[in-house]
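Reply to dn_fold:

You asked what the input looked like. This is it:
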Amino acid sequence: MTKLSKKHLKIIESYKQATELPCYNLAPVEGKPSETDSKMGGFPYLPKGASVPKDENGKPMVLFIQLNLEGLEPLEGYPVDFPTKGILQVFMAENSEEYPTPHKVVYYDSIGKFQPDDGSADENEWVTSAFKLKAEKAVSILPVRFMTIGDQMLSSIYKKVDVYHDMIADEINKCVPAATFAGHADTTQSADFDYMENIVLFKINSELDGRICIGDAGILVAGIPFDALEELDFDRAFVDWDCC
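and this is what came back:
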């Protein structure tokens, strides 16, 4: 069996150090999610008088992810600040596998009186059963995929194209968190996230949990332009996804 040498391991550490980016790691936790919890799927936090976003046909969208930002510690090392209060949500059209998928990113800057869960949450194609999430400060590593920025960076550090290149990439990808708020984008195919104009809000990989499957075991990324995040203008946020 082919093994990586100390030289290869040093290359991996060099790549990780060069691409480290602060983020909040999102991990599943036990327990039924409440209206205000961070969660995948389920009934969303809805302030009194608010309603679920609708698609162009007037049909209510479904909650994909909700993050309660209260108490999050600020991330150091970012050119813009992420909000650390309120609630951030991503809604998708019920037919999530339409591409591009109709979506809506919603932000409430505070948490007040809300509508109770009445059991009316619409079926979600991508989240088979709602579950809670926990957000903790972590480090995101830029994944290595074919013909992406990560692949180019690795190639600049390790100038050979051989079996070890793929093995090094595999070891790096093992360190990539499955789901984050902030941090790096990810893709199962060759498209790249435009880091010059935008910043990542969410990266959700289907590997996060057995209760989620994005398309055919793919990855979803929600992003927003730098200036829009500074202004908390989430109407300019966008969602993209791909599958293997």
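The beta strands are 21-29, 39-40, 62-68, 87-92, 103-108, 131-140, 179-182, 198-205, 219-225, 238-242.
Hope that clears it up.
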